[in-house]
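User: Design a sequence. Structure:
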């Protein structure tokens, strides 16, 4: 069978861009590694050891005594610049294959240490934690983040552009063991060098390094180096330095990770429309394939291939409530598309408030209704080459006839160059071609992100789309903002041509020009129970290309951040204007075309995450909503029963009265987590949406029998519970096993 491939002849429009970036000025070459700007001053030396290191949560082996002790953690909150209220110390040793970081968190009240979570990749916001970031290229932009709590739960993320993209679904092989002691708690990290990408050097390596400790009961955040407010741990331009790394072995050259999938699926449908009789179709849901084949071309450049890709173990999407006429944005959760996703995250400036994505990988392998589109295979190259951050992606999909989706080929080219101390310029090209037709869509352009004076951000992009029978159409964005701890100000501009088309992106609408200024003040009062106030306002105006106002928002916000970590948010005034150019429906109630305006006020309280019972309560009233009224309630309580058992709920309830009728919506996502230990994890999800008459159940058991390799048992059921599709059901029961082979 022959499949279409990218038209590389036409894709050569990106080659001059690569040449320009590769031939950047000596300034760009130098500042990528010179630590200019605000880079940290502290340095710790890693000590090479030939002695064994036993990963047991104790730092009593002779190897640890060879390394110097690093101290001096400084508070960011609640008292910026003051020493941490509890002593923290760490050491760094390494062998040829592994980096070890040992951290002792002393605590004058060890009974108050909070540890409630064992799930992999939970952000651990309810617990005491220690985190470290490793800037292995020492480019002051990109890093690996590793975090744990006193129970040794693992969280890792791939950080791109100082946190503009934080990919928590990046999972690699590393380990950590933690234990509580009479004087605090200890965490012992073991990070294989083969799990990292590093810059090649014959004279030893210097990495960026920073550590964060969170004492949750005090809501205290302290850092080894980057403690200044207005920065986060992900801002590795603030990190210190790790020296002494010599003669390390990245080891991994080739990894093959096949999978075996076994199971059955069942669908139940009415025999005929309106009939009470049903027909049931049961078929096998088994398969084999290669989850990923990873080949390390150089220590800093990696190729990934996938064949007959399967995503059975991927978390289900949380149901969302749609109260307007535009599509909803769902996050990417599939592992193959998550790894290295930050490299392909271009044109980020417009996404701050519009939800626009020039490239959204969910357009590959998923239908508009969220059904899987078979992926025949794909390949990706990501990393650095001659100082250029490079990303290449090519994926081939099969057809999905029941949704009239054709087999297609998708290609993405991305190149980016660091300039100055915290800035970058780059370009991109995206291409989609449908098999068996002359239809294609191509989008290409350039983007730039600049940061000056610590808090001044300037970014923008422009892109052009091409398709058969249409002249090139443009989208462009420019944004400027100052974002410090006390003062924030922004100005955004976005223009999208009426006929701009982006098959690989997410666009809520076209044919508009948007202008959005904002300003905010965040003073810190000298009050025992309030840490910070926020007073802010934003004004958002959108016009079409004929100059008519199509959307306007004037919003004023007041927030209180309490010392215990809770927040109170009040929006006393929010004016909305919406021009509807075609009739549409909300939950079956008609809204005719016309001009509408209404006012909104919002009250939201978020309980401190240090409590076992926490979450948020949100209430809003839209007075005049499409010439009616709407009340909206959002409840998201969570309860940490124990370190093994937790319950999470998100319930949205809206009730509205419009001229054409009344409606109410109920959207629920209810999750029960039970974790036997850090390797045996279960989650059960119950979902309900009355607007779609949908109820779903998902159960997932995950056994991590070694880092990076898993056994999954997954049960999914979705059913319609009312309307013409009542009693329609879809079920699957599958077991999946993955095992990696390293060469």
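Assistant: Done.
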């Amino acid at each position: 069978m022959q499949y279409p491939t990218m038209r590389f002849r036409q894709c050569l429009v990106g080659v001059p861009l690569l040449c320009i970036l590769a031939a950047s000025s000596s300034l760009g070459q130098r500042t990528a590694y010179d630590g200019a700007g605000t880079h940290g001053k502290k340095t710790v030396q890693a000590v090479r050891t030939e002695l064994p290191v036993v990963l047991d949560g104790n730092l009593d082996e002779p190897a640890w005594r060879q390394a110097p002790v690093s101290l001096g953690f400084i508070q960011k909150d609640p008292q910026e610049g003051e020493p941490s209220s509890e002593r923290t110390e760490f050491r760094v040793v390494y062998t040829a294959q592994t980096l070890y970081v040992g951290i002792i968190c002393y605590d004058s009240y060890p009974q108050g240490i909070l540890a409630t979570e064992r799930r992999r990749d939970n952000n651990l916001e309810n617990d005491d934690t220690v985190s470290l970031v490793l800037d292995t290229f020492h480019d002051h932009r990109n890093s690996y983040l590793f975090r744990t709590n006193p129970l040794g739960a693992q969280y890792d993320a791939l950080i791109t552009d100082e946190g503009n993209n934080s990919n928590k679904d990046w999972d690699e092989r590393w380990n950590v063991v933690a234990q509580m002691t009479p004087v605090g708690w200890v965490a012992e990290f073991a990070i294989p060098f083969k799990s990292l990408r590093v810059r090649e050097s014959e004279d030893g390596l210097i990495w960026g390094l920073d550590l964060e400790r969170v004492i949750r009961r005090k809501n205290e955040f302290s850092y080894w180096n980057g403690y200044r407010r207005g920065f986060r741990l992900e801002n590795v331009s603030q990190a210190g330095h790790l020296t002494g790394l010599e003669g390390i072995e990245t080891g991994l050259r080739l990894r093959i990770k096949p999978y075996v999938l076994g199971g059955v699926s069942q669908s139940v449908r009415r025999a005929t429309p309106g009939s009470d009789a049903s027909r049931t179709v049961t078929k096998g849901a088994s398969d084999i394939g290669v989850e990923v084949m990873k080949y390390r071309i150089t220590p800093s450049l990696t190729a990934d291939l996938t064949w007959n890709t399967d995503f059975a173990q991927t978390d289900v999407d949380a149901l969302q409530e749609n109260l307007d006429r535009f599509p909803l944005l769902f996050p990417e959760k599939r592992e193959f598309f998550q790894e290295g996703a930050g490299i392909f995250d271009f044109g980020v400036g417009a996404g701050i408030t519009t939800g626009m994505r020039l490239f959204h990988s969910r357009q590959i392998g998923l239908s508009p209704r969220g059904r899987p589109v078979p992926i025949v295979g794909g390949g990706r190259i990501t990393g650095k080459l001659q100082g250029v951050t490079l990303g290449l992606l090519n994926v081939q999909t099969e057809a999905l006839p029941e949704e009239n989706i054709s087999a297609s080929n998708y290609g993405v080219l991305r190149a980016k160059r660091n300039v100055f101390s915290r800035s970058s310029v780059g370009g991109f090209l995206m291409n989609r071609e449908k098999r068996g037709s002359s239809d294609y869509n191509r989008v290409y352009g350039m983007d730039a992100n600049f940061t000056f004076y610590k808090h001044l951000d300037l970014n923008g992009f422009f892109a052009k789309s091409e398709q058969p029978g249409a002249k090139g159409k443009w989208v462009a964005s420019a944004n400027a903002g100052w974002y410090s701890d006390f003062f924030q100000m922004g100005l955004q501009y976005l223009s999208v041509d009426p006929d701009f088309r982006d098959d690989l992106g997410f666009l809520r609408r076209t044919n508009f020009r948007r202008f959005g200024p904002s300003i905010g003040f965040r003073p810190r009062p000298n009050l025992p129970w309030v840490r910070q106030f926020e007073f802010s306002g934003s004004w958002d105006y959108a016009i079409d290309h004929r100059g008519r106002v199509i959307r306007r928002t004037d919003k004023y916000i007041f927030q209180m951040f309490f010392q215990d970590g809770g927040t109170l948010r009040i929006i006393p005034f929010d004016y909305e204007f919406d021009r509807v150019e075609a009739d549409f429906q909300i939950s079956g109630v008609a809204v005719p075309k016309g001009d509408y305006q209404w006012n909104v006020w919002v009250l939201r309280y978020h309980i401190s995450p240090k409590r076992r019972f926490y979450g948020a309560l949100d209430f809003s009233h839209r007075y005049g909503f499409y010439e009616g009224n709407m009340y909206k309630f959002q409840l998201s309580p969570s309860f940490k029963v124990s370190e093994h058992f937790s319950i999470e709920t998100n319930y949205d309830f809206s009730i509205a009265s419009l001229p054409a009728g009344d409606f109410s919506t109920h959207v629920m996502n209810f999750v029960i987590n039970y974790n036997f230990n850090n390797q045996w994890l279960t989650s059960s999800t119950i979902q309900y949406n009355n607007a779609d008459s949908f109820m779903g159940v998902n159960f997932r058991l995950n056994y991590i029998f070694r880092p990076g390799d898993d056994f999954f048992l997954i049960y999914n059921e979705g059913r319609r519970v009312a309307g013409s599709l009542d009693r329609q059901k879809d079920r699957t029961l599958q077991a999946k096993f993955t095992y990696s082979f390293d060469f």
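DSSP finds five helices and 43 strands in the chain. Confidence is low (pLDDT under 50) at residues 1-37, 349-353.
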